[in-house]
Amino acid sequence: MESHVKDTVRLFLSHLEEVRGLSPNTVSAYRNDLEHFFDFLERMGLSDIKKVDHKTLRAFLAFEETRGHSRPTIARRCASLKSFFRYLADAGLIDTNPASALSFRVSGRKPPVFLSESEVMRLLEGSGSDPVLQIRDLALIEVLYATGIRVGELCALKLGDIDFDGCTMRVCGKGNKERIVLFGAKARDALLSYIELARPILLKSSDYKGDAVFLGSRGKPINPRQVQRVIERESRRLSSRGRISPHTLRHSFATHMLSRGADLRTVQELLGHASISTTQVYTHLSKSDIKRAYDRTHPRA
Asked: Is there a catalytic annotation at residue 204?
C-alpha cells in the first residue's frame, strides 16, 4: 500500500473512532478488511484509488469467496468498503462513489451458538492452580453471563461504574452509548470477592494506579485477547463443545432470558441493540420451550 493511500486509510479509521465513536475492536475489523482489499488491488496492479470502479469491487468480493471466507465475513468486507468509499466521496477525494450500489447478501443466517444452563454452571465451577486468577476468572465469567455485556465493555469497566447496592453497572457500548445493565447476587458476590481479595494482589505486579475493574496477571488492565484465553481455558471441561468465546456467554444470556419469559424489548435494552431486529436472532426457542409457553399462556391449553 502506497504512503498516500496509507494516510487516507489512517484518516478514515480516525474518523470512525473519533467522529462516529466506534469501538477499537470495530475499527480494527475495518482496518483488516481494507488491508485485504488493498492486497487485492496490488495483485491487480491497480494503485490509483480513483480508478476503482463497481466491477473492481465486485471482483474483490468474488475473489474473497474463492479463498474460502465465510459469507458473513464477505458481507462485513462489503460494508467496510461502502463506508470507506462513502467517506472518500464526502471528503471530495474521489469524483464518484463506486460502492454506492454494492451489496452482498447473507442468506440462511444461522442462529447464534449458546450454552445450555447446565453448561454455564459447569463453566463456573472454576479450575487452575493459581487461587488469585481463579477468583478473578470466576468474577469475569459471572459478569459476562449475568449482564450479557460485550468483551470490550467488560475490559473498559471502571470501579466507579458498579453500584453494588442496586446491583447495576454502567457500560459504554457501540457508538459511545451508555446504558445500565443488571446483575444478580451470584455475580455481586463474585465481584466483591475479586475486588477485595484478588485485585489488590494483582495490582502489586505493576505500577498501575488506575481504576479498571479487571486486571491481567501482570497487574495491567485486561484486554479482549486475555479474556478470550480465560474462556477457552475454562471451556475445556465442556468436551462436547467446539471453540467458545466471550460472545458465546452474551448469546447464552439473551437466549436464557427469552426462554424464561423475558420480553424482547427488555433484552434489547440490556444488550444495547439499536434495532430490535438484531435482538430477534435470539428467538430460536426449542420445541419444548414453545410447548411450555403454550401450556402456560393459552386459556384452552
From this structure: no
Domain that holds residue 122: 117-289
Task: Establish whether 208 is a catalytic residue.
Answer: no
φ and ψ of 243, to 5 deg: -70, 130
Tell me if 89 sits within 8 A of 52, measured CB to CB: no
Let me know if 284 is a catalytic residue.
no
On whether residue 234 sits in a domain, the answer given is yes
Contacts with 27 (C-beta within 8 Å, 6 or more apart), sequence order: 13, 16, 17
CATH number at residue 282: 1.10.443.10
Does 151 fall in a domain? yes
- Residue that terminates a domain, selected from 72, 90, 108: 90
Residues 124-166 pLDDT 10s: 887 667 899 999 999 999 999 999 999 999 999 999 999 999 9
Q: Is 282 a catalytic residue?
A: yes
Position 164, amino acid: F
Q: Which of 77, 82, 188, 250 is catalytic?
A: 250
* Catalytic residue list contains 247: yes
> Are 278 and 134 in the same domain?
yes
pLDDT tens sequence across 218-275? 999 999 999 999 998 888 877 666 778 899 999 999 989 888 888 888 888 899 887 7
Among 76, 82, 150, 188, the one annotated catalytic: 150
